[in-house]
Structures are given as structure tokens and as C-alpha cells.
Amino acid sequence: MILDITGSAKFVDAEELQEARQEAVDAMQGLINDYEQGENWLGWLSIAADIRPTIDKIEDAARRLRNDCEAVVMCGIGGSYLGAKAVIEALKPHFGKTEPEILFAGNNLAQDYIVEMSNYLKGKKFGIVCISKSGTTLETAIAFRVFRNQMEQESGEEFAARHIVCITDLEKGALHDIAVMNGYEMFEVPGNIGGRYSVLSAVGLLPIAVAGYDIRQLIAGAFDFYRPHRGVEACGEIIDYAALRNIMYRNGKKIELFVDFDPRLRYLGEWWKQLFGESEGKEGKGLFPASVSYTTDLHSLGQYVQEGERHLFETVVSVEHGKYEMEVPRTKDNLDKLNKYSWYTIGYINSVAEKGVRMAHIDGGVPNLRIAIPQINEYHLGQLIYFFELVCAVSGRMLGVNPFDQPGVEAYKANIKKLL
Ligand code: PA5
Predict the structure, then answer these.
(1) 80 Cβ closer than 6 Å to some ligand 1 atom
(2) Helix 55-68 × helix 215-224 angle, to 10°
(3) Residues 231-252, buried b or exposed e (16+ Cβ, 10 A)?
(4) Does 201 contact ligand 1 (Cβ within 6 A)?
(5) 14 C-alpha vs ligand 1 centroid, how far in Å?
(6) Ligand 1 centroid, distance to 48 Cα (angstroms)
């Protein structure tokens, strides 16, 4: 993974950058000290090492669901869903059904969505992975009720007992109680890891393994990027990204746009938005995290990015090599005059588009950071996830907020309860 900050150079004063880097180093050091003193909420820092003894058990459960089920419903919302969704969307083929089919539920309260999923599952052997740290989240709990009832009625309680897996607090909570009472297999959401930092725990790993992807490689990517124990000197990219986001914010940039040039990464953008939005958006502060997928969105939001209000900067996640190569085909009539490009691959044209877009946006007053990975696979996704988590924790500290709580999320929940 490479972080290229040259696209921010003309917007940032060298002295300002040096000062912010020092602040980021202090924040990183603070994070490491807190971790060493056993401070709460920092379990994710060492999860790539700590999860290793549980990997076999996760893979066994995944194998059972993969072997016995045509579809598996993943119930969860927010941090209990987005990480797995991001990795699976990045790795799965664009077209055709996967085996088993992975369905996500419990991430909205849209009645039609649930009814249509229930109808779709009728007559199919399906499994359920229910993920909720608190065990009481309404969206997840309602979906779990619906699909658990359906499974018990259609396939019987014995099948349900073997094909429902719960990921939750191992000591308390409604989901914990349901699992214990019914003998469902359980995995832990570690108490010292918040939802949005939990993708490398069983929360993300089990759904990803059920989808058939290599969770050992995902963990290896994060583990190899496990820089903090090598000291802050080894954390150059983390320091630079955290420092630059904070400089941008202080200098009037209010929106950070996560940009991909490959639709496989769209859900990584969704996960990234939750990570940064829920971690930093508090006490009247924080960059607003938004995401776009180019070149698609150049034909919708491109005009705004190029010439609208200058309150945004871009962070591009760039993929150097695709899975396949295809050249632009030649045609006999050449009416569209594209034969002159026919020795270029479509991937090369996309990379040229990326360069051209970055240049245009920088010229238009949009600072640009670029994170490049060689290709989309489990290893590089693991690295990226861990990198963003580290940056978020450091950046939140620099901003002066607690990047691990989300007190504001409770307000709407309390209203729903009252109104119901
Ligand atoms: O990051 C977070 O903590 C939240 O987004 C939670 O993951 C989300 O609210 C779901 O909570 P729970 O896992 O308790 O159902």
C-alpha cells in the first residue's frame, strides 16, 4: 500500500505539515501508550494477532453453513455488517449467483425488503448469522425474528440449532440469551472492540469465510501492516494521512470524498464512511465523509467536484492491476473513431482517466490524496482496513474527540422506542 500525498502539496504549507505531523506522532504515541496500559476500546489494535486461535473454529462454522445451505442471511447493521459487506462485494464476481448466496438483512426497517427476502427464501435451505454486539439493535432483532421463525417452521428446530450462529457479547444481552437457550453456536464481539473497528474479528471474518474467501490472508494483510509495535517511526503513511486530513479540516475543507475507480470498492467506501463519520462527527466537529465511484459519478457529481463550492478534498483508492485484461476491440467501420485506441486495454484507459481526473480536480482547487494497492484481494483489503482504522483513531485524537464512542446514535433509537 502506498500513500501519495503530492496532490495535496500546493494546498499545504510545509511548516503547517511538519507541525501537524508532530501532532499525529503524539496522537499515535498516545494510542500506543493507552493500549499498553489496557485502556478500553483498543482491542482492535492487536486483533490480527489475537484472533488467530479462533480462526479454525470460524472456518469450521463457515464450512458447515457453506456445505448445508443454499443461502446464508447475515443479520446486522452498522459495524456489525458493513465491513463484511465491503470485503465480500470487493471479492465476489460482478455477475451470477454465489454459492451459497449471501444475503444481508437487519440493516434497514424496510418492510418490503424483508418480505421479499422471506419469499425468496421459501423452500430453500438457508442459514443465519446474527451479529449484534449489544444484542438489542431493533433492525437486526426484527430481521432475526422473521428469519429464525421461518427457518424453524420450514426446516425444523434441529436444523435451526445447527445453522444459526450468533456473534455477540459472550456474557450478556438478548442475543446471547437466545443463543444459550437454543444451543446456537456463538462467537464473541470482544468487549474492547467497538462495532466499526470489528471487521477483523469474528464479526467480519465469519460472513467473509461463509462467502468462501480466505480470512487468513485478510488477517495476514493487517498483521503485516501492524506497525505500531515497531514504533511510530514505522507509521509514516498513517501519520501523513491523519495529519493531512486535519490540516484540510482546519483550512476550511469540510468534506472528504472517498473515491474509487472500480465499482468493487463501493462498499469499502460505505464502510469507510461509517468508520470516519461515527468516529469523528461529534461535539460539532468532524469532516463529513462522502464517497463517489468514478468514472460513473463524474457524470453526476463531477461537475460539482470540479467547479462547486471548494470545501472538499479527495482520497482516491487506486487499484493498480485488475483480474482480467481486455483490449478495446477494433471494428471494420470505425465510425466512433476508436480504432486508434485498440491496442490499449480498458484497464489502461481507466488508469489514464484516473490521472486526468486527479489533475483536473487539483487544478480546480480539490486537494488529492492517493492510496494505491497492487490488486484487490484479501491480503490488500486486510491491509487497507487496518490502515484506515489506525488513521481514524489517530485523526480523531488530533481532532480532540473520542473516536470510539457514538453517543449521538442513541437519540433516534430513544425516539423510536418512545413513539412505539
Ligand atoms: O460502530 C458501532 O458501534 C455501531 O455502528 C454498531 O456497530 C451498530 O450500531 C450495531 O450495533 P450492535 O452490534 O450492537 O447491534
Answers:
(1) yes
(2) 150
(3) ebeebebbbbbbbbbbbbbeee
(4) no
(5) 39
(6) 20
Q: Do 321 and 374 contact (CB within 8 A), yes or no?
A: yes
Q: Half-sphere exposure of 75 toward its Cβ, with a 13 Å CA cutoff?
A: 31
Nearest to 323 by CA among 351, 350, 347: 347
Edge-to-edge strand list for the sheet holding 368-375: 2-4, 368-375, 312-321, 255-260, 288-293
Residue 372's SS3 state is strand
Q: Determine the distance separating the centroid of ligand 1 and the alpha carbon of 347, expressed in angstroms.
A: 37
Coil, helix or strand at residue 130: strand
pTM: 0.97
169 CB under 6 A from ligand 1? no
Q: Is the CB of 403 under 6 A from ligand 1?
A: no
pLDDT in tens, the chain (420 residues): 999 999 999 999 999 999 999 999 999 999 989 998 988 899 999 999 999 999 999 999 999 999 999 999 999 999 999 999 999 999 999 999 999 999 999 999 999 999 999 999 999 999 999 999 998 999 999 999 999 999 999 999 999 999 999 999 999 999 999 999 999 999 999 999 999 999 999 999 999 999 999 999 999 999 988 766 677 777 899 999 999 999 999 999 999 999 999 999 999 999 999 999 999 999 999 999 999 999 999 999 999 999 999 999 999 999 999 999 999 999 999 999 999 999 999 999 999 999 999 999 999 999 999 999 999 999 999 999 999 999 999 999 999 999 999 999 888 989 998 999
Residue 195 CA: distances (Å) to CA of 49, 77, 272, 323, 347:
18, 9, 13, 31, 35
Which is catalytic among the residues 122, 299, 417, 418? 299
Helix (H) or strand (E) holding 72: strand 71-75
Ligand 1 pocket: which of 40, 80, 274 to mutate (most atoms <8 Å of CB)? 80
Rounded distance, CA 384 to CA 115, Å?
A: 36
215 dihedral zone (left: phi>0; alpha: psi -120 to 50; beta) = alpha
Which grid cell sits at 214? Answer: 480466505
Question: Does ligand 1 have an atom closer than 6 angstroms to the CB of 79?
Answer: yes
**CA 99: distance to chain centroid?**
22
Alpha carbon of 156 to ligand 1 centroid (Å): 30
